[in-house]
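Render this sequence as a predicted structure.
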Amino acid sequence: MVARAPQAAAAGARCLGARHLATGTQSQRVAALLELQEQADALSASTLKEMQALRRKLHADSRELRRRRAELVAGAELAGEELALEPAAPDVMQGLHEMGVEGDSMTGFWQVVLQRTLFYGQADEDDIYGAAPTSKWLNEDDIDALSFCTNVEIDVAEAGDGEQVKFSFHFAENPYFSDSLLTAVFERDENGDLVRGLGCSIAWKDPEGLTQRTIRPKPPKGGKGKKGKKGKGELLAPKGKVVPRASFFHLFSEIEFDEEAERELSMDDEAMGEDDGEDAFFDAEREQVMREYVEQLERKTIPDAIEVYINAPDMDMDFEDEMEDYEDDVQEAEYRDVGSKRGRGRMLK
């Protein structure tokens, strides 16, 4: 045993040296892998820039097609090669007649397109419109207001290291606001992520517009409100407060996109304070919904508007019933909040 000790010591030294050598080689291997990852990241960034440039070019090149689309939708006369086209298939025309389309103009074109791409998306992978599941933010009043929309346009331009997306909504005279044009401008960073929305002011004919509502607590049993100081038996309506309302028209409001705030949508009610829980929840959901609206408008609603208008979705959905149930749920939650002050962030569950 003693005689063999030098041999064992030498073998141990060799093993130790081998481990050091392997460690050094492994370190270089990791460095090489990290270098490959950096090259892959650079390639991805370069490809993203190219894809963004191609998308901007597509929007620019198709501007004239969208202009002519707007003219034909409004009832312009056919011209040139359009006169030699074969008529649309009978089943297509039957579908349009069932929608109430008569005469030369396409009745409610943008109302239908916006409703189908922004309302009917119910997280269904087979949905041919690929819409975002944000239906509750396109309420019944929004749908009626959008019936006065005559055209929707998009412009995408390079802005610094990122880009700027501008949506222009044209409206005929309507009972909701005085503007004939509403614009929503959104800024993206170099990675293509939304940073902020600049919005525009809307000249609402009703002070609350479509993005706010007044809520009042339910009166106590046996009466309709407190007795007024003047006049016996005179009752005053319960005092209400103005709160934000889920609406498509938040698209035209200023907004800062915060991914952290969106993640808070899943937090427990108890994690929110009584004063800021409701507002925080609403703001976070608004960011999420507007992010999906921008994506849908740019990728589907505007470029594929004709296909969406003509090809009706095969869905068993009653819009009025859906919205009536939703409004009832929201109103009940709001009554509890105003009356007891214990509701936190429950408006838009």
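Summary. The CA atoms of residues 217 and 338 lie 6 Å apart. The chain has a mean pLDDT of 76.
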